[in-house]
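ESCALATION

Customer reports they have been waiting on this structure for their group meeting. Please prioritize. Original submission:
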Amino acid sequence: MALGGCLRAGRGLLRAAGPRGPPAHRGYAGGQPPAFGFLFDVDGVLVRGSQALPAARQAFRRLVDSSGRPRVPVVFLTNAGNCLRSAKAQELSQALGLQVSPEQVILSHSPLRLFSQFHQKCMLVAGQGPVEENAQNLGFKHVVTIEALRKAYPLLDMVDQSRRPKQMPPPTTGFPTIEGVILFGEPVRWETSLQLIIDVLLSNGNPGAELQDVPYPHLPVLACNMDLLWMAEAKMPRFGHGTFLLCLETIYKKVTGQDLKYEALIGKPSTVTYRYAEYLIKQQAEKQGWKSPIRRLYAVGDNPMSDVYGANLYNNYLKSAHQNQVQAGVKRSLCTASPQTEDHLELRKDCNNSVESCESILVCTGVYRHNADGPSSMKECTTETVFHGHRDFCFDPRLVEASYVVQDVNDAVQLAFKKENWS
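Update from on-call: job pushed to the front of the queue and completed.
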Protein backbone atom coordinates (compact mmCIF):
# COMPACT_ATOMS: atom_id res chain seq x y z
CA MET A 1 0.00 0.00 0.00
CA ALA A 2 1.52 3.36 -0.99
CA LEU A 3 0.43 6.79 0.09
CA GLY A 4 3.08 9.16 -1.26
CA GLY A 5 0.68 11.97 -2.02
CA CYS A 6 -1.14 11.36 1.25
CA LEU A 7 2.11 11.71 3.17
CA ARG A 8 2.80 15.04 1.49
CA ALA A 9 -0.70 16.15 2.43
CA GLY A 10 -0.07 15.02 6.01
CA ARG A 11 3.07 17.12 6.21
CA GLY A 12 1.10 20.08 4.98
CA LEU A 13 -1.45 19.51 7.73
CA LEU A 14 1.36 19.22 10.24
CA ARG A 15 2.53 22.69 9.25
CA ALA A 16 -0.95 24.18 9.20
CA ALA A 17 -3.05 22.21 11.70
CA GLY A 18 -3.03 24.78 14.49
CA PRO A 19 -5.87 27.28 14.41
CA ARG A 20 -4.88 30.89 14.27
CA GLY A 21 -6.05 33.33 16.89
CA PRO A 22 -5.82 32.62 20.63
CA PRO A 23 -2.45 31.59 22.04
CA ALA A 24 -1.78 27.89 22.47
CA HIS A 25 -2.78 26.28 25.76
CA ARG A 26 0.14 25.65 28.05
CA GLY A 27 -0.26 22.21 29.53
CA TYR A 28 -0.12 20.78 31.98
CA ALA A 29 1.45 22.22 35.15
CA GLY A 30 -1.61 23.73 36.69
CA GLY A 31 -2.65 25.26 33.36
CA GLN A 32 -5.37 24.23 30.95
CA PRO A 33 -6.20 20.54 31.43
CA PRO A 34 -6.20 18.41 28.27
CA ALA A 35 -9.42 17.59 26.46
CA PHE A 36 -7.71 14.89 24.39
CA GLY A 37 -5.67 11.72 24.78
CA PHE A 38 -3.38 9.45 22.77
CA LEU A 39 -3.66 5.76 21.88
CA PHE A 40 -0.23 4.59 20.74
CA ASP A 41 0.50 1.36 18.94
CA VAL A 42 3.89 -0.05 19.97
CA ASP A 43 5.60 -2.20 17.31
CA GLY A 44 6.48 -0.11 14.27
CA VAL A 45 5.49 3.14 16.02
CA LEU A 46 7.58 3.31 19.18
CA VAL A 47 9.92 0.33 18.74
CA ARG A 48 11.16 -2.08 16.07
CA GLY A 49 11.73 -5.38 17.83
CA SER A 50 13.66 -4.48 20.99
CA GLN A 51 15.00 -1.17 19.65
CA ALA A 52 13.27 2.14 20.39
CA LEU A 53 12.73 4.40 17.38
CA PRO A 54 14.46 7.81 17.79
CA ALA A 55 11.21 9.67 17.14
CA ALA A 56 9.55 7.90 20.08
CA ARG A 57 11.75 9.51 22.73
CA GLN A 58 11.38 12.87 21.02
CA ALA A 59 7.59 12.50 21.10
CA PHE A 60 7.46 11.57 24.77
CA ARG A 61 9.59 14.51 25.80
CA ARG A 62 6.63 16.57 24.60
CA LEU A 63 4.12 14.45 26.53
CA VAL A 64 5.62 14.87 30.02
CA ASP A 65 6.64 17.97 31.98
CA SER A 66 10.08 18.72 33.41
CA SER A 67 9.27 16.53 36.42
CA GLY A 68 8.27 13.58 34.26
CA ARG A 69 4.56 13.95 35.04
CA PRO A 70 2.13 13.39 32.16
CA ARG A 71 0.68 16.40 30.40
CA VAL A 72 -1.83 14.34 28.40
CA PRO A 73 -3.42 10.93 29.10
CA VAL A 74 -1.74 8.14 27.13
CA VAL A 75 -2.62 4.48 26.58
CA PHE A 76 -0.35 2.01 24.81
CA LEU A 77 -2.63 -0.07 22.63
CA THR A 78 -0.78 -3.08 21.27
CA ASN A 79 -1.89 -6.35 19.74
CA ALA A 80 1.01 -8.10 21.45
CA GLY A 81 -0.21 -10.66 23.93
CA ASN A 82 2.50 -13.23 24.64
CA CYS A 83 3.69 -11.41 27.76
CA LEU A 84 2.44 -10.00 31.04
CA ARG A 85 1.05 -6.49 31.18
CA SER A 86 3.62 -5.54 33.80
CA ALA A 87 6.46 -6.85 31.62
CA LYS A 88 5.28 -4.79 28.64
CA ALA A 89 5.08 -1.69 30.86
CA GLN A 90 8.65 -2.26 32.05
CA GLU A 91 9.82 -2.81 28.47
CA LEU A 92 8.21 0.46 27.38
CA SER A 93 9.66 2.32 30.37
CA GLN A 94 13.16 1.27 29.35
CA ALA A 95 12.60 2.05 25.67
CA LEU A 96 11.09 5.49 26.22
CA GLY A 97 13.15 6.58 29.21
CA LEU A 98 10.14 7.31 31.43
CA GLN A 99 7.85 5.49 33.84
CA VAL A 100 5.02 3.56 32.17
CA SER A 101 2.49 1.91 34.49
CA PRO A 102 0.71 -1.38 33.69
CA GLU A 103 -2.57 0.57 33.87
CA GLN A 104 -1.49 2.44 30.73
CA VAL A 105 -0.97 -0.77 28.73
CA ILE A 106 -3.65 -2.64 26.81
CA LEU A 107 -2.48 -5.94 25.38
CA SER A 108 -4.60 -7.77 22.84
CA HIS A 109 -6.16 -9.90 25.59
CA SER A 110 -6.67 -7.18 28.26
CA PRO A 111 -10.44 -6.71 27.64
CA LEU A 112 -10.99 -10.41 28.41
CA ARG A 113 -11.09 -9.46 32.10
CA LEU A 114 -14.54 -8.03 31.30
CA PHE A 115 -15.89 -11.32 29.89
CA SER A 116 -16.78 -12.68 33.31
CA GLN A 117 -19.34 -15.18 32.00
CA PHE A 118 -16.39 -17.40 30.94
CA HIS A 119 -14.23 -16.98 34.05
CA GLN A 120 -15.60 -20.05 35.83
CA LYS A 121 -15.47 -22.33 32.79
CA CYS A 122 -12.66 -24.77 31.97
CA MET A 123 -10.83 -23.02 29.13
CA LEU A 124 -8.13 -24.34 26.80
CA VAL A 125 -5.51 -21.60 26.28
CA ALA A 126 -3.19 -21.40 23.27
CA GLY A 127 -0.26 -19.12 22.52
CA GLN A 128 3.23 -18.75 23.93
CA GLY A 129 4.81 -17.10 26.93
CA PRO A 130 2.92 -16.99 30.27
CA VAL A 131 -0.49 -17.91 28.82
CA GLU A 132 -1.65 -19.66 32.00
CA GLU A 133 -0.63 -16.73 34.21
CA ASN A 134 -2.19 -14.26 31.80
CA ALA A 135 -5.47 -16.16 31.86
CA GLN A 136 -5.47 -16.29 35.66
CA ASN A 137 -4.67 -12.59 35.93
CA LEU A 138 -7.65 -11.88 33.67
CA GLY A 139 -9.95 -13.79 36.03
CA PHE A 140 -10.12 -17.27 34.47
CA LYS A 141 -10.21 -19.84 37.25
CA HIS A 142 -9.88 -23.16 35.36
CA VAL A 143 -7.25 -23.21 32.63
CA VAL A 144 -5.77 -26.03 30.53
CA THR A 145 -2.72 -25.35 28.34
CA ILE A 146 -2.02 -26.96 24.98
CA GLU A 147 1.00 -28.66 26.54
CA ALA A 148 -1.07 -30.11 29.39
CA LEU A 149 -3.61 -31.41 26.88
CA ARG A 150 -0.85 -32.94 24.76
CA LYS A 151 0.62 -34.74 27.76
CA ALA A 152 -2.80 -36.03 28.79
CA TYR A 153 -3.51 -37.30 25.27
CA PRO A 154 -0.10 -37.99 23.67
CA LEU A 155 -1.63 -39.80 20.67
CA LEU A 156 -3.15 -36.56 19.42
CA ASP A 157 0.15 -34.87 18.49
CA MET A 158 1.52 -36.90 15.57
CA VAL A 159 3.14 -34.51 13.07
CA ASP A 160 6.57 -34.44 14.71
CA GLN A 161 7.66 -38.07 14.63
CA SER A 162 10.24 -37.49 17.36
CA ARG A 163 7.42 -36.59 19.79
CA ARG A 164 5.23 -39.60 19.04
CA PRO A 165 4.92 -42.02 21.97
CA LYS A 166 7.17 -45.06 21.61
CA GLN A 167 4.52 -47.35 23.09
CA MET A 168 0.78 -47.22 23.61
CA PRO A 169 0.06 -44.94 26.62
CA PRO A 170 -2.52 -45.95 29.25
CA PRO A 171 -6.02 -44.47 28.96
CA THR A 172 -6.38 -40.94 30.32
CA THR A 173 -8.76 -40.60 33.26
CA GLY A 174 -9.95 -37.65 35.27
CA PHE A 175 -9.13 -35.00 32.70
CA PRO A 176 -11.68 -32.15 32.80
CA THR A 177 -14.09 -31.49 29.97
CA ILE A 178 -13.04 -28.35 28.12
CA GLU A 179 -15.78 -25.73 27.86
CA GLY A 180 -14.15 -23.09 25.64
CA VAL A 181 -10.98 -21.97 23.90
CA ILE A 182 -8.89 -18.81 24.31
CA LEU A 183 -6.43 -18.00 21.54
CA PHE A 184 -3.96 -15.55 23.09
CA GLY A 185 -1.48 -15.34 20.22
CA GLU A 186 0.56 -17.29 17.71
CA PRO A 187 2.01 -20.48 19.25
CA VAL A 188 5.48 -21.91 18.67
CA ARG A 189 4.39 -25.29 17.29
CA TRP A 190 1.56 -24.38 14.99
CA GLU A 191 0.87 -27.95 13.91
CA THR A 192 0.34 -29.08 17.51
CA SER A 193 -1.97 -26.22 18.45
CA LEU A 194 -3.97 -26.47 15.22
CA GLN A 195 -4.49 -30.20 15.65
CA LEU A 196 -5.45 -30.09 19.34
CA ILE A 197 -7.77 -27.09 19.02
CA ILE A 198 -9.60 -28.78 16.14
CA ASP A 199 -9.79 -31.99 18.23
CA VAL A 200 -11.38 -30.08 21.12
CA LEU A 201 -13.94 -28.39 18.87
CA LEU A 202 -14.86 -31.62 17.06
CA SER A 203 -15.20 -33.59 20.30
CA ASN A 204 -17.14 -30.95 22.25
CA GLY A 205 -14.30 -30.66 24.75
CA ASN A 206 -13.48 -34.38 25.13
CA PRO A 207 -10.59 -34.99 22.70
CA GLY A 208 -9.94 -38.51 23.96
CA ALA A 209 -13.38 -39.69 22.85
CA GLU A 210 -14.24 -41.26 19.53
CA LEU A 211 -15.59 -38.83 16.95
CA GLN A 212 -19.36 -38.95 16.79
CA ASP A 213 -21.54 -36.33 15.13
CA VAL A 214 -19.67 -33.05 14.84
CA PRO A 215 -21.27 -30.56 17.28
CA TYR A 216 -22.34 -27.26 15.76
CA PRO A 217 -22.39 -24.61 17.00
CA HIS A 218 -19.07 -25.58 18.52
CA LEU A 219 -17.60 -24.57 21.88
CA PRO A 220 -17.04 -20.82 22.48
CA VAL A 221 -13.81 -19.48 20.96
CA LEU A 222 -12.31 -16.19 22.18
CA ALA A 223 -9.51 -14.90 19.94
CA CYS A 224 -7.04 -12.10 20.66
CA ASN A 225 -4.98 -10.22 18.06
CA MET A 226 -6.11 -10.45 14.46
CA ASP A 227 -2.97 -8.96 12.86
CA LEU A 228 -2.05 -10.90 9.74
CA LEU A 229 1.41 -9.31 9.76
CA TRP A 230 3.58 -7.29 12.12
CA MET A 231 6.89 -5.46 11.90
CA ALA A 232 10.05 -6.47 13.77
CA GLU A 233 13.72 -5.94 12.87
CA ALA A 234 13.42 -7.81 9.55
CA LYS A 235 12.99 -5.80 6.36
CA MET A 236 9.65 -7.45 5.57
CA PRO A 237 6.64 -7.95 7.88
CA ARG A 238 6.36 -11.23 9.85
CA PHE A 239 3.37 -13.56 10.26
CA GLY A 240 1.07 -12.55 13.11
CA HIS A 241 -1.70 -14.28 15.01
CA GLY A 242 -4.13 -13.38 12.25
CA THR A 243 -2.21 -15.78 10.01
CA PHE A 244 -2.65 -18.54 12.60
CA LEU A 245 -6.38 -17.79 12.83
CA LEU A 246 -6.62 -17.98 9.05
CA CYS A 247 -5.06 -21.47 9.16
CA LEU A 248 -7.42 -22.59 11.93
CA GLU A 249 -10.51 -21.26 10.14
CA THR A 250 -9.49 -22.89 6.86
CA ILE A 251 -8.85 -26.29 8.45
CA TYR A 252 -12.12 -26.23 10.40
CA LYS A 253 -14.07 -25.28 7.27
CA LYS A 254 -12.39 -27.98 5.19
CA VAL A 255 -12.98 -30.70 7.81
CA THR A 256 -16.55 -29.83 8.81
CA GLY A 257 -17.97 -27.79 5.94
CA GLN A 258 -18.97 -25.15 8.51
CA ASP A 259 -17.51 -21.77 9.40
CA LEU A 260 -15.51 -21.41 12.59
CA LYS A 261 -17.40 -18.94 14.78
CA TYR A 262 -15.93 -16.61 17.40
CA GLU A 263 -17.66 -15.69 20.61
CA ALA A 264 -15.42 -12.62 20.64
CA LEU A 265 -12.58 -11.13 18.62
CA ILE A 266 -10.43 -9.00 20.92
CA GLY A 267 -7.62 -6.59 20.11
CA LYS A 268 -7.39 -4.05 17.32
CA PRO A 269 -9.50 -3.38 15.28
CA SER A 270 -12.25 -4.58 17.65
CA THR A 271 -14.52 -1.85 18.98
CA VAL A 272 -14.44 -3.57 22.39
CA THR A 273 -10.71 -2.83 22.65
CA TYR A 274 -11.09 0.86 21.83
CA ARG A 275 -13.98 1.19 24.28
CA TYR A 276 -11.72 -0.25 26.95
CA ALA A 277 -8.93 2.15 25.93
CA GLU A 278 -11.31 5.10 26.29
CA TYR A 279 -12.22 3.84 29.74
CA LEU A 280 -8.53 3.77 30.79
CA ILE A 281 -7.89 7.22 29.30
CA LYS A 282 -10.70 8.63 31.44
CA GLN A 283 -9.35 6.85 34.51
CA GLN A 284 -5.96 8.47 33.96
CA ALA A 285 -7.51 11.92 33.63
CA GLU A 286 -9.44 11.42 36.86
CA LYS A 287 -6.30 10.19 38.65
CA GLN A 288 -4.43 13.33 37.58
CA GLY A 289 -7.26 15.52 38.83
CA TRP A 290 -8.06 16.88 35.37
CA LYS A 291 -11.64 18.10 35.53
CA SER A 292 -12.24 18.77 31.84
CA PRO A 293 -13.87 15.83 30.05
CA ILE A 294 -11.83 14.06 27.38
CA ARG A 295 -13.40 14.94 24.03
CA ARG A 296 -11.01 13.62 21.40
CA LEU A 297 -8.71 10.62 20.99
CA TYR A 298 -5.77 10.39 18.58
CA ALA A 299 -4.87 6.81 17.62
CA VAL A 300 -1.34 6.53 16.23
CA GLY A 301 -0.36 3.34 14.39
CA ASP A 302 1.61 1.83 11.52
CA ASN A 303 -0.85 -0.79 10.27
CA PRO A 304 -3.77 0.40 8.09
CA MET A 305 -5.65 -2.88 8.58
CA SER A 306 -5.64 -2.83 12.39
CA ASP A 307 -4.66 0.61 13.72
CA VAL A 308 -6.38 2.79 11.13
CA TYR A 309 -9.32 0.44 10.58
CA GLY A 310 -9.92 0.12 14.33
CA ALA A 311 -9.70 3.83 15.06
CA ASN A 312 -12.05 4.68 12.19
CA LEU A 313 -14.48 1.95 13.20
CA TYR A 314 -14.55 3.34 16.73
CA ASN A 315 -14.93 6.87 15.41
CA ASN A 316 -18.02 5.69 13.51
CA TYR A 317 -19.35 4.17 16.72
CA LEU A 318 -18.80 7.44 18.60
CA LYS A 319 -20.61 9.40 15.90
CA SER A 320 -23.53 6.99 16.04
CA ALA A 321 -23.64 7.19 19.83
CA HIS A 322 -23.71 10.97 19.80
CA GLN A 323 -26.46 10.95 17.19
CA ASN A 324 -28.54 8.81 19.55
CA GLN A 325 -28.66 6.01 16.97
CA VAL A 326 -27.21 3.51 19.43
CA GLN A 327 -27.14 3.35 23.20
CA ALA A 328 -23.93 4.29 25.01
CA GLY A 329 -21.70 1.24 25.55
CA VAL A 330 -20.00 -1.23 23.30
CA LYS A 331 -22.27 -2.29 20.44
CA ARG A 332 -21.67 -4.84 17.76
CA SER A 333 -20.28 -3.34 14.56
CA LEU A 334 -22.26 -3.92 11.40
CA CYS A 335 -19.03 -5.06 9.79
CA THR A 336 -18.27 -7.93 12.16
CA ALA A 337 -20.03 -11.15 12.94
CA SER A 338 -18.61 -11.50 16.46
CA PRO A 339 -21.21 -10.96 19.21
CA GLN A 340 -19.33 -8.25 21.10
CA THR A 341 -22.31 -6.49 22.63
CA GLU A 342 -22.30 -4.61 25.87
CA ASP A 343 -23.96 -7.62 27.52
CA HIS A 344 -20.42 -9.03 27.80
CA LEU A 345 -18.99 -5.96 29.47
CA GLU A 346 -18.86 -4.15 32.77
CA LEU A 347 -18.24 -0.96 30.80
CA ARG A 348 -21.96 -0.28 30.83
CA LYS A 349 -21.49 1.47 34.18
CA ASP A 350 -19.19 3.98 32.45
CA CYS A 351 -22.06 5.85 30.83
CA ASN A 352 -20.34 9.26 30.67
CA ASN A 353 -19.87 9.18 26.92
CA SER A 354 -17.89 12.42 26.65
CA VAL A 355 -15.50 11.35 23.87
CA GLU A 356 -16.70 12.69 20.53
CA SER A 357 -14.07 11.46 18.06
CA CYS A 358 -11.16 9.09 17.52
CA GLU A 359 -8.87 10.29 14.74
CA SER A 360 -6.44 7.91 13.04
CA ILE A 361 -2.84 8.94 12.38
CA LEU A 362 -0.76 6.60 10.22
CA VAL A 363 3.04 6.64 10.55
CA CYS A 364 5.58 5.34 8.04
CA THR A 365 8.00 3.57 10.37
CA GLY A 366 6.46 0.09 10.49
CA VAL A 367 4.16 -2.11 8.40
CA TYR A 368 3.10 0.80 6.22
CA ARG A 369 5.81 2.48 4.15
CA HIS A 370 5.04 5.37 1.85
CA ASN A 371 6.24 5.45 -1.73
CA ALA A 372 7.03 8.82 -3.24
CA ASP A 373 5.85 7.49 -6.60
CA GLY A 374 2.57 6.23 -5.17
CA PRO A 375 -0.94 7.52 -5.83
CA SER A 376 -1.70 11.14 -5.12
CA SER A 377 -4.96 10.73 -3.26
CA MET A 378 -6.13 8.61 -0.36
CA LYS A 379 -9.02 7.32 -2.46
CA GLU A 380 -6.59 5.88 -5.02
CA CYS A 381 -4.58 4.40 -2.16
CA THR A 382 -7.41 2.34 -0.72
CA THR A 383 -9.61 1.19 -3.60
CA GLU A 384 -7.19 -1.43 -4.92
CA THR A 385 -5.77 -2.68 -1.64
CA VAL A 386 -5.42 -6.36 -0.74
CA PHE A 387 -7.46 -6.72 2.46
CA HIS A 388 -5.28 -8.02 5.28
CA GLY A 389 -8.01 -7.72 7.90
CA HIS A 390 -9.84 -10.57 9.56
CA ARG A 391 -12.53 -12.58 7.77
CA ASP A 392 -15.29 -11.28 10.06
CA PHE A 393 -14.54 -7.61 9.40
CA CYS A 394 -15.79 -6.30 6.08
CA PHE A 395 -13.46 -4.42 3.77
CA ASP A 396 -14.62 -0.85 3.55
CA PRO A 397 -11.97 1.36 1.87
CA ARG A 398 -13.07 4.28 4.02
CA LEU A 399 -12.06 2.42 7.17
CA VAL A 400 -8.43 2.02 6.09
CA GLU A 401 -8.22 5.67 5.06
CA ALA A 402 -6.21 7.44 7.77
CA SER A 403 -7.29 10.87 8.95
CA TYR A 404 -3.64 11.92 8.65
CA VAL A 405 -0.42 10.36 7.36
CA VAL A 406 2.87 11.56 8.87
CA GLN A 407 6.43 10.31 8.88
CA ASP A 408 6.77 9.21 12.51
CA VAL A 409 5.28 9.35 15.99
CA ASN A 410 6.95 12.65 16.84
CA ASP A 411 5.23 14.23 13.85
CA ALA A 412 1.96 12.64 14.99
CA VAL A 413 2.21 14.23 18.44
CA GLN A 414 3.06 17.62 16.96
CA LEU A 415 0.10 17.33 14.60
CA ALA A 416 -2.31 16.59 17.45
CA PHE A 417 -0.88 19.40 19.56
CA LYS A 418 -1.41 21.87 16.74
CA LYS A 419 -4.95 20.68 16.16
CA GLU A 420 -5.62 21.14 19.87
CA ASN A 421 -3.85 24.52 19.98
CA TRP A 422 -1.62 22.99 22.62
CA SER A 423 2.05 23.66 23.30
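Sent to customer with the following note: The longest strand covers residues 296-301.
Escalation resolved.
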